[in-house]
Design a protein that fits this description.
Helix content: 10-25%
Strand content: 15-25%
Number of domains: 2
Largest sheet: 6 strands, mixed
Radius of gyration: 47 Å
Shape: globular
Structural class: alpha+beta
Distance between the termini: 128 Å
Number of strands: 12
């Protein structure tokens, strides 16, 4: 006949540091405790034998001397003195490109011929009215159809801002206008402009600034040049690059269209133009 024990609560006066559950002793049970069969407290396998692997004690399964299996981790633990790694985070490859477990970002690389692939064409919306910058290398259009003599009114108080004057009113404002030759140029950065080269008046007088500017424009039809002012000589210094630079890419735009873009807001066709009225002191 199996031995019977009385179930109850552990002794509250026990000061031991062991916090694991211990067997309940008969001496710990109160008098009115329920009696249970000790054999019923042991878990059994399907064949009726005691199954120690199913014990409620978390260490009961390893009392045979075997150690619990290690927890599975993706890298070194905090006990190693190393920080755990997260495989899901992006890591740099050998060439400095970042890749991740989910995708490769190389496919986002944009080809240099994006404009051609996307069918994009550049629209010319700005043409400079001023001479090329002294820091810019430029070429002058060799075609004679991309240059034209005109009458310009140049306002010195507006950073030499030129205004295109209609021929029918030039005679009435000859004191304020002067003849210029508009020549088309393009810089190494692709900026397009109409260079207003001064022309001699009817008396044929010229100066060193005018002469050296025309010489620079002539060289610019075949070479990349740069024009800088030499104040001590009262003339322009013309520099020619020795680098093997490619030929310029000229805009596929008619010359008259270039003039329209450049002077759209700087055209004087009437004597009542605000600029002329201001010069006469009317406004």
């Amino acid at each position: 006949m199996p031995k019977k024990v009385t179930a109850g609560y552990p002794n509250v006066n026990d000061n031991t540091d062991d916090t694991r559950p211990r067997p309940v002793l008969a001496s710990d049970a109160p008098d009115d405790a329920m009696s249970v069969d000790e054999s019923d407290m042991e878990p059994k396998s399907a064949h009726g034998a005691i199954d120690t692997s199913a014990s409620t004690d978390p260490e009961a399964r390893f009392t045979n001397g075997t150690a619990p299996p290690p927890l599975e981790t993706d890298g070194p633990s905090a006990d190693d003195g190393q920080e755990p790694t997260d495989k899901s985070k992006a890591a740099p490859s050998g060439d400095g490109n970042y890749t991740s477990k989910a995708r490769s970002f190389r496919r986002f690389r944009l080809d240099q011929n994006f404009d051609e692939v996307a069918g994009v064409s550049k629209v010319l919306v700005h043409v400079s009215r001023l001479k090329p910058s002294p820091q810019s290398w430029f070429r002058v259009h060799p075609d004679e159809s991309y240059r034209m003599p005109v009458a310009l009114l140049v306002l010195k108080d507006e950073r030499s801002e030129p205004y295109l004057v209609a021929p029918e009113i030039v005679a009435e404002m000859s004191a304020e206008t002067s003849p210029h030759l508009l020549v088309t140029y393009v810089t190494r950065q692709g900026a397009v402009g109409l260079w207003p080269l001064r022309l001699p008046r009817s008396d044929g007088k010229s100066d060193n600034w005018m002469r050296t500017a025309h010489e620079g424009a002539k060289l610019g039809t075949t070479r990349w040049v740069r024009l800088t002012a030499n104040l001590s000589n009262g003339a322009y210094d013309v520099q020619v690059t020795s680098a093997d630079l490619p030929e310029p890419e000229w805009p596929d735009t008619a010359f008259e269209k270039l003039i329209e873009i450049a002077y759209r807001e700087n055209i004087i066709e009437s004597l009542d133009h605000p600029v002329l009225r201001r010069l006469r002191g009317e406004i």
